[in-house]
Amino acid sequence: MKKDIITIKDLDAGDILEILDLAKKVKQDRAAYSGRLRGKSIGLIFQKPSNRTRVSFEIGMEQLGGHAMYLGPGEIDMGVRESVKDVACVLSRYLDGIVARTKEHADMEELAGYATIPVINGLSDYAHPCQAMSDIFTVKEKLGTFKGVTLSYVGDGNNVLNSLMCAAAKVGLDMKIATPKGYEPAKDIVRLAKSFAKASGSKLELSNSPKKAAMDADIIYTDVWVSMGQEKEAEKRKKQFRDFQINGGLMKVTRGGCLIMHCLPAHRGEEITGSVIDSKDSIVYDQAENRMHVEKAVLLKLLK
User: Fold this and answer.
1) Which residues are identified as catalytic?
2) First to last CA, the chain
3) How far apart are CA 229 and CA 126, in angstroms?
4) What CATH architecture does domain 131-287 belong to?
5) What is the pTM of this model?
6) What CATH number is given for 8-128+291-303 in this structure?
7) Residues near 24 by beta carbon (within 8 Å), at least 6 away in sequence
8) Averaged pLDDT, groups of 10, the chain, 304 residues long
9) Domain locations in the chain?
């Protein structure tokens, strides 16, 4: 049977750790995996613009010896010009896998439901599993362990947080989360993450206090306040998120040497100050690089 990665729920802890272990090997010895996917092709079906997701998957697939074809928002217009079902069924005849970036998570699920080849979620409004796995890979790379480590997230309860919570909980990484009232992560995801945390023995704490979340953090993480598709809410969100900025004052309540993460793109001066994101403890570019290594591991796992 084909295997899809639509949300972190599609993977058990063993699957995630296997992907992280393979990503480490891929990163350490690129030449050893060159040509592993020769003759394989993937399609990148994107309804939203992309920097890291597109480049990391295209170059990653090329380094593995395969081919990636980008199909942007104006080329297929999936769900409008052509039904999701027809796109899935036709591309399944041409390709070995699909990486999709959709506006609606329902389109992602429908695409995977009809496709007979693996479908990888490159971002939806509900989940961003490849980002989350890259994030926890970076945590393990920098600190050597998940046990006893606290990752604090301050900001919007969005798709990135949904996936990050579940991935962290599955591997035993403690998380403390602070969001403004009314912007908490989805309740169904919180329930899921808490069940995963109970199984792994990790801790998951949610509040509306940035200082509470940042207290004694080993790593602090944030994302944009206004995601793609939320532009009409920009001014309202900026006011409501004003106290949730990662700045020098908030960094003072973290542990000494606290690392800084951001999935990018960053809106400097909004969710994070330039001095913090450019500080010696910032690992945002390592985090961005690791997207490619983890995605190569995902491609190897699903397509080989």
Assistant:
1) 101, 128, 131, 223, 263, 291
2) 13
3) 13
4) 3-Layer(aba) Sandwich (3.40)
5) 0.96
6) 3.40.50.1370
7) 137, 141, 293
8) 91 97 98 98 94 97 98 84 94 98 96 97 97 98 98 97 98 98 95 98 98 97 88 91 97 96 97 98 98 98 94
9) 8-128+291-303, 131-287
